[in-house]
Specification:
The chain has ten helices and 14 strands. It is of the alpha/beta class and 383 residues long. The protein has two domains: 137 residues, Cytidine Deaminase, domain 2 (3-Layer(aba) Sandwich), CATH 3.40.140.10; 209 residues, Rossmann fold (3-Layer(aba) Sandwich), CATH 3.40.50.
Length: 383
């Protein structure tokens, strides 16, 4: 039995957790991250709480804190003897500390929180033997229902953010934009799309990119897709880089993916794409990075390396991860021939730049397995 579920689930735990879920749903309706909590004593709910940091402008206004405060007020004592707290999401370090200070005999949570959970996912304060109070812990009660509520909430939020982003970047008359519905059914692509259109080289064209991981990470991976691909190509490598604590930047070149697609191929010169990427990388504060690109994009990789001297610690030569892949995602950005001006033009670029500035270090990937190559690269390119 794991530390996280060291206690035994009681017969009524699921029923009490459903009441906590009601509080979580109320938080979602108010625009807050849906987390709910209740405090039970002698078979009676004596306090409830829901997430409200946004409404209260208070970083401590978590559901657990609200429930603990209400319970202490009701009992007239901050020590909550004989009480059990139920919460839909694994508590963070702040809330776990408050529970221990309250001398709660027992805490029950629903879904695990892999990023900030302090009850077994990241750390386990409840298993620390040096603390002067020990609280019994039970996790995973109605975990699927609790996790689904959070997943649905964040999916809806991403859709709203995408709609706002679309509205903020009007389409130029000389360009096309792939309808968002073309991407709706894609799997394995959970990242939040980001857009920029105010770079001088873009002149109003909308560039789509991914920016995942800590902005101040010690290592950044700048990923350039292949001649007929787009940022979806990195869906297997990206989780490995993020698990290492790194930042990942992955643009869709203009003419590809979710980026705008000029109708005329003539715009797609190597020099112009290099200028766009250099301005974009500068705007994001690109620090020491490893450039990731398939062999067919060697000319663009070399040109970008020359345009941003001192920024790249190395080059990871990735296979063209589209080869042999029947994923319908590759056709999604291109509903007709008019949307394919970019791939047609980029297909005419040179395979390499003669006399290009060499990268400080290079790792060539020999396996089409993106995750395996990413794991190898994480070990090879040390920050």
């Amino acid at each position: 039995m794991s530390e996280r579920t060291a206690g035994a689930e009681a017969p009524d735990d699921a029923a009490w957790m459903r009441l906590a879920l009601q509080e979580a749903r109320a938080a979602a309706e108010a625009g807050e991250v849906p987390v709910g909590a209740i405090v039970v004593r002698h078979g009676e709910v004596i306090a409830t709480g829901r997430n409200a940091p946004i409404a209260r402008h208070d970083p401590t206004a978590h559901a657990e804190i609200a429930a603990l405060r209400a319970a202490a007020e009701r009992l007239g004592n901050y020590r909550l003897d004989g009480c059990t707290l139920y919460v839909t999401l694994e508590p963070c370090a702040m809330c776990s500390g408050a529970m221990l200070h309250a001398r709660l005999p027992r805490v029950v949570f629903g879904a695990a929180e892999v990023k900030t959970g302090a009850a077994g996912s990241v750390v386990n304060l409840f298993a620390e033997p040096r603390l002067n109070h020990q609280t019994a812990l039970q996790g995973g009660v109605l975990a699927d229902e609790c996790a689904a509520l959070l997943s649905d909430f964040f999916q809806q939020r991403r859709q709203q953010q995408r709609a706002r982003a679309l509205a903020a970047h009007p389409l130029r008359d000389d360009a096309l934009r792939t309808p968002e519905a073309r991407f709706a059914a894609l799997s394995g692509d959970p990242c939040l799309p980001r857009y920029v259109s105010d770079l001088p080289a873009l002149a109003g064209l909308r560039l789509h990119y991914l920016d995942e991981g800590p902005p101040d990470a010690a290592r950044t991976w700048l990923c350039l897709h292949g001649r007929t691909a787009w940022s979806h190509a990195w869906r297997r490598m990206l989780p490995v880089f993020l698990a290492a604590g790194d930042r990942v930047l992955a643009p869709d070149l203009i003419g590809f993916g979710r980026s705008d697609k000029p109708k005329k191929p003539a715009v797609h010169t190597l020099a112009w794409h290099t200028r766009v990427l250099a301005e974009w990388a500068d705007g994001l504060g690109l620090g020491p990075a490893v450039l990731v690109a398939p062999p067919g994009m060697a000319a663009l990789a070399s040109a970008l390396h020359a345009a941003l001297p001192g920024r790249f610690a190395g080059l990871l030569v990735s296979p063209d991860v589209q080869e042999g892949d029947t994923d319908p995602a590759w056709a999604a950005p291109f509903p007709d021939a008019g949307h394919r001006a970019g791939p047609r033009a980029v297909g005419q670029w040179p395979r390499a730049l003669p006399g290009g500035v060499p990268f400080p270090d290079t790792l060539a990937g020999g396996s089409p397995d993106g995750a395996a190559l990413a794991a190898r690269a994480v070990e090879y390119f040390r920050p």
